[in-house]
Amino acid sequence: MTATDPASTPPARAPVADAPETPEPEADTAALAPAPPVGLWNIANILTVSRLLLVPVFAFLLLHDGGRETGWRLAAALVFMIASFTDRLDGELARKRGLITDFGKIADPIADKALMGTALVSLSALGELWWWVTVVILVRELGITLLRFWVIRYGVIAASRGGKLKTLLQALAIWISVLPLAAVPGGAWLGWIGSVIMGAALVVTVVTGADYVVKAVRLRRGAGTGTGAA
């Protein structure tokens, strides 16, 4: 038997220690937890309801004594301005704070149209706005509301810039018309400006209404085509 040369024998390897196991990150239970339900009486819905309650107050102030009292007209203009401001504020609060509710989706457009519709009808009743202007705007607003229900199961059409411009022009024109222009310095010029703005609002109202109809029809047809293909 041949003796083994100790020099040629490879040194024994030291045992390798097992690498420590990396602990798996724990799931963020807070992130996985469902968001708490939004309460019905949040600040956005309260503003919406407040705007709806201001509508009869505004109508009473505007129509008092046939709309001839300066103080009552000024009060009506102030109430309309506050109500219009809540229209913008409640939407922003609902989106930023996650306060969107089914009640708000229904009540907000109702409050908007109640305020604008009451103002237009009241001004026409006082002989300060042509009835055909009121009819065109109200038919457009009612038609678009019904159209929303027609396509709601297929999708939602986001508010366009034209729609927002329409709302702004209508509110500004109505506010100027509500003011007691005969008692306001420069009332004649202000009345002329209000008429121009109302004309612009009417044009934008009709154009955006037609655009909404086209989008709604395309949405309905697209959904029907997709369903048929599937």
Spell the H/E element sequence.
Answer: HHHHHHH
- The number of helical segments is 7
| Global structural class | mainly alpha
**Percent helix range:** 55-70%
Strand content: under 5%
CATH topology: Four Helix Bundle (Hemerythrin (Met), subunit A)
Low-pLDDT segments, ≥5 res: none
Any idea of the CATH class?
Mainly Alpha
Largest sheet features: none
Number of strands: 0
Tell me the count of domains. Answer: 1
Mean pLDDT: 81
The gyration radius over C-alpha positions equals: 32 Å
User: What separation lies between the terminal Cα atoms?
Assistant: 83 Å
- The backbone outline, from C-alpha atoms, is globular
The CATH H-level homologous superfamily: CDP-alcohol phosphotransferase transmembrane (TM) domain
Would you identify the CATH architecture? Up-down Bundle
Task: Provide an overview of this structure.
This protein has helices spanning 29-32, 43-63, 70-96, 102-125, 131-151, 161-178, 187-229. The chain is mostly helical. The termini are far apart. It has a single domain (40-223), classed as Four Helix Bundle (Hemerythrin (Met), subunit A), CATH 1.20.120.1760. The protein is built from seven helices and no strands. The mean pLDDT is 81.
